[in-house]
Each structure stands twice: as C-alpha cells, then as structure tokens.
Amino acid sequence: MNSQRFPRSARVRTRADFDRVFKDGRRTGLPVLALHWNRDDAIAPRLGLAVSRKVDPNAVGRNRIKRQLRDEFRRLRSTLAPGDYVIVARPGAAQRSGLELRAAFLDLLRRARALPAPAPAGTMPPPSSDPSAGA
Q1: Which helix (H) or strand (E) holds 47?
Q2: Spatial distance between the Cα atoms of 100 and 65, rounded to a whole number of angstroms
Q3: d(CA 42, CA 96)
Q4: Mean pLDDT of 97-119
Q5: What was the pLDDT predicted at 53?
Q6: pLDDT of the residue at 1
Q7: Distance CA 84, CA 17 (A)
Q8: Would you state the pLDDT for residue 29?
C-alpha cells in the first residue's frame, strides 16, 4: 500500500518547478487535457496539476478533476519514467466522467512515451533466448 501514497515529494509544488516544466518540457495534448513532461532521471515521477476557473467555475468540479487525475497518477507512479509531469485541464474536462479523464491521461502518457510499451497481445509465450531450449 505504501507505493500508492502521494507524498509531498511526489508533487510539483513551486512556481519555479512549474515554470521549468513549461519552458523545457515536452508537450502533448488532447481536447480535454494537455501534458507537459520534463524527463529528469535524478528524481522520481512528480505530478503537478493546473485546473483553472475557465475549466469549471465551481470548486467542486475542479477538485473532482484533480482527484481523478491524482488517483490515476498514484496508481501508475511506479511504472512511469522519472521526471516532472504537469497536467493542464482544458474546458472540455468538466463534462467528462472520471473514467474518460483517466483514459485521456493514460493516452497522453502513452503519446509522450512515459509508460512502458504494453505486452504484445497473443496466446503464445515470448520466444526463449536460451539456445539449449527447443530443438
């Protein structure tokens, strides 16, 4: 359960950190979310969230979006490449369900190649590299 925690060290918190990610990081986007990612092998994955009043004028709606994204990041953190991830919500995010927000976040991470490649589909096991196996 400890791998599921979201300590302060897993958050992008300072303005300088946000500015560095926006200035130096790579960006990929969807109609509902944008991901700014600055790879840094010296630090564990950290998440920053930017959800403005333009996305949803009600704090309850903004907090729902942040809660969904934070929870998905918490679940994926151990598999992510090291670096800082800043998610910027766009106005369409307020009308999306939690599952749709999580799916969009996963899609952004795959586009940025921050997640490892999925296992190949099929029923056969991967080929063995042991020369004594087989024939």
Answers
A1: strand 46-50
A2: 11
A3: 35
A4: 87
A5: 95
A6: 47
A7: 8
A8: 92
Has residue 100 got a pLDDT over 90?
A: yes
Q: Tell me the residue type at 46.
A: R
- Specify the amino acid at residue 67: R
Six-digit token string for 47 = 């998440």
pLDDT of residue 8: 83
Work out whether the CA dihedral 7, 8, 13, 14 comes out positive or negative.
negative
Residue-wise pLDDT tens digits, 36-83 = 999 888 888 999 999 999 999 999 999 999 999 999 999 998 899 899
C-alpha angle with apex 46: 18 to 78, nearest 5 degrees? 160
Task: Output the six-digit token pair for 127.
Answer: 């080929």
Contact predicate 65/55, CB 8 Å: yes
* Position 110, amino acid: R
Residue 60, classed as helix, strand or coil, is: helix
Q: How many residues does the chain have?
A: 135
The tokens 């996305």 sit on which residue? 55
Using the structure block, give the residue that is written with the tokens 């704090």: 59
Maximum pairwise Cα distance, the chain? 67
